[in-house]
């Protein structure tokens, strides 16, 4: 039997390794070695949601449902001429830098600069499309994506009538230091779209050419990073993690040079462009640059806009509205990072310019899903010091929120600043509470028992010692019945096979099974609940790499398979099994490296 004397040791070890807390304000995060998934049930097509609410009596009739379904599908826009997006609201709300040309410059007193995408060299190919985004968010008929007009639109070579693209000026703290003006150096906002549900989405191209913010960059994105951004945005959505979305991926023949070598020679890569969407692309860095430059009126204007458009429960006349806004961002950011941890997602570059004010995941660069459980997992080979290692993400969130507080300071009174600081101090508790909930759900633990934290902590300790796979350990625990677990027959479950090699495994299993036996539910119910929060498939680097290799020779089949698989990550799929997506990663996967270069 595992002695409880181990508890302080385990907790201390996990504090040190997984969630080491570097600052005073975080000293209360301790049992946080918790990783888990939000109960993201894969979302059915929007038409079903809209037309078959459970309260709708008509939907009990098959014919009525079918006719409504057909009508809803035919309501999708079939002609791009009727698809209307516009940057008008953004342009009317803020001063816009109208200086002609994309020469690199320091911009002052503006939130946006006008800039036109530079078409990529053709032939252009539509490598991937998210049906969910095209139909469910943009109300477009999927058939439309086959047209040349559509390809022109999503690649940036053809602007829709009236479209006046914008690029956003922002700054940011990168790897702990203020980096000054950054901005959209390779992204263009094409416009906002209000869909039939009344949601406003901002469409942005990434990789669409130079802008006033390109600094020394070429304004391009390579196939490699674009495939990863497309796949991961959609995969995170399906996992239930707040994220920007990706509509399309277009690949070109335009040569793009990065620091990538193949057989000792510099490899020429090809440019690609992703059409991505978010309700807003404003970041912590959007406010920071205004505060740093003393542009307080504009800071207030941007804050008021963000609050009015995206934080609608905040009363715009409330004298404490900025404080309430800050409090919301603090708790939503804590929740977001807890979500990341629960699926083993390491963002890779948690700079303040990559932290959204809406607390959604943005900028899919050198991210990684942790395979062997390791709190020191660093997905980005350019991050020598492991600043953004997975176990430090909660700390980094705190650092970034501290920078947000500093950016808000010019519009807060002295009393409000003190209150904001108290709110920031509460971040650790919010994070801890959320992550504890998520990990309890991952283990199927209902109610509250004294040992729950210990059961989670000990499991993670065993996983760390045996380097067992994070995703599959939880998934396999979900898929086996109590009896199968009891028998410890792990020949078909490779992660549990690894885990069970630990000398304390049987003790842990005993505790866990006893805990489950006190729950008043069937084994099947427990398994189903767990399967809904523990994905069978995540975007492992080797899977992305394999799809990238094929995409580079214009074979898009694997991107399509991965996209389909990851759209239902909680459901076992034959094709995915055949592709080995839930199997032990291949040997060559160990050599894979992902850097900032993209
Ligand atoms: N190839 C490039 N050309 C021009 N600017 C670039 C290029 N790559 C990155 N940048 C700029 O460098 C900064 C940091 O890059 P980072 O990789 O974090 O952002 P990104 O991936 O380009 O954009 P986003 O955060 O919008 O996804 C940003 O201002 C970005 O626009």
UniProtKB/TrEMBL annotation:
Which residues span the membrane?
none
Q: Which keywords belong to this entry?
A: ATP-binding, Magnesium, Metal-binding, Nucleotide-binding, Nucleotidyltransferase, Transferase
MF terms in GO: ATP binding; metal ion binding; nucleotidyltransferase activity
Q: Which cofactor does it need?
A: Mg(2+)
Which InterPro entries does this entry report, sorted A to Z?
Answer: SelO
Tell me the Pfam families matching this sequence: SelO
Similarity comment: family membership: Belongs to the SELO family.
Protein's recorded name: Selenoprotein O
Query: Could you tell me which species this protein originates from?
Result: Xyrichtys novacula
């Amino acid at each position: 039997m595992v002695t409880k004397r181990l508890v302080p040791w385990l907790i201390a070890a996990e504090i040190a390794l997984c969630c080491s807390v570097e600052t005073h304000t975080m000293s209360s995060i301790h049992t946080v070695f918790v990783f888990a998934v939000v109960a993201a049930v894969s979302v059915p097509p929007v038409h079903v949601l809209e037309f078959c609410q459970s309260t709708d009596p008509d939907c009990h009739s098959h014919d009525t449902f079918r006719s409504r379904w057909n009508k809803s599908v035919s309501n999708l826009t079939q002609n791009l001429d009727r698809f209307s997006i516009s940057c008008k609201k953004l342009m009317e709300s803020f001063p816009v830098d109208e200086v002609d040309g994309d020469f690199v410059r320091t911009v002052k007193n503006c939130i946006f600069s006008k800039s036109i995408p530079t078409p990529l060299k053709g032939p252009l190919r539509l490598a991937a499309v998210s049906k969910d985004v095209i139909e469910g968010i943009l109300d477009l008929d999927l058939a439309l994506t086959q047209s040349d007009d559509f390809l022109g639109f999503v690649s940036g070579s053809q602007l829709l009538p009236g479209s006046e693209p914008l690029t956003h000026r922002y700054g940011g703290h990168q790897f702990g230091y203020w980096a000054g003006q950054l901005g959209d150096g390779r992204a263009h906002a094409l416009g906002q779209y209000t869909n039939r549900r009344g949601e406003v989405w901002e469409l942005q191209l990434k990789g669409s050419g130079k802008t006033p913010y390109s600094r020394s960059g070429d304004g391009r994105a390579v196939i490699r990073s674009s495939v990863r951004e497309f796949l991961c945005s959609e995969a995170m959505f399906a996992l239930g993690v707040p994220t920007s979305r990706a509509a399309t991926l277009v690949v070109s023949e335009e040569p793009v040079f990065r620091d990538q070598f193949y057989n000792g020679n510099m490899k020429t890569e090809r440019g690609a462009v992703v059409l991505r969407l978010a309700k807003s692309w404003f970041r912590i860095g959007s406010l920071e640059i205004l505060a740093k430059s003393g542009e307080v009126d504009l800071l207030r204007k941007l804050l008021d806009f963000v609050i009015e458009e995206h934080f609608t429960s905040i009363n715009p006349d409330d004298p404490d509205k900025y404080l309430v806004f800050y409090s919301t961002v603090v708790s939503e950011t804590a929740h977001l990072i807890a979500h990341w941890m629960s699926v083993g997602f390491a963002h890779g570059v948690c700079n303040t310019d990559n932290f959204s004010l809406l607390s959604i995941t943005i900028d899919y660069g050198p991210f990684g899903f942790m395979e062997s459980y390791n709190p020191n997992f660093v997905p980005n080979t350019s991050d020598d010091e492991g600043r953004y290692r997975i176990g430090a993400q909660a700390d980094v969130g705190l650092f970034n929120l501290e920078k947000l507080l500093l950016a808000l300071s010019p519009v807060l009174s002295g009393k409000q600043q003190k209150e904001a600081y108290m709110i920031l101090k509460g971040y650790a508790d919010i994070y801890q509470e959320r992550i504890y909930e998520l990990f309890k759900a991952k283990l199927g633990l209902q109610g509250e028992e004294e040992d729950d934290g210990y059961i989670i902590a000990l499991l993670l300790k065993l996983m760390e010692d045996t380097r067992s796979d994070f995703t599959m350990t939880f998934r396999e625990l979900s898929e086996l019945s109590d009896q199968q677990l009891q028998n410890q027959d792990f020949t078909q479950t490779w992660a549990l096979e690894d885990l069970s090699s630990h000398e304390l495994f049987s003790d842990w299993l005993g505790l866990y099974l006893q805990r489950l036996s006190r729950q008043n539910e069937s084994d099947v119910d427990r398994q189903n609940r767990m399967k809904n929060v523990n994905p069978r498939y995540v975007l492992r680097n080797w899977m992305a790499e394999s799809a990238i290799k094929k995409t580079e020779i214009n074979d898009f089949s694997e991107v399509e398979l991965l996209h389909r698989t990851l759209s239902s990550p909680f459901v076992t799929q034959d094709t995915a099994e055949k592709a080995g997506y839930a199997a032990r990663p291949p040997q060559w996967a160990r050599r894979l490296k992902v850097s900032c270069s993209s």
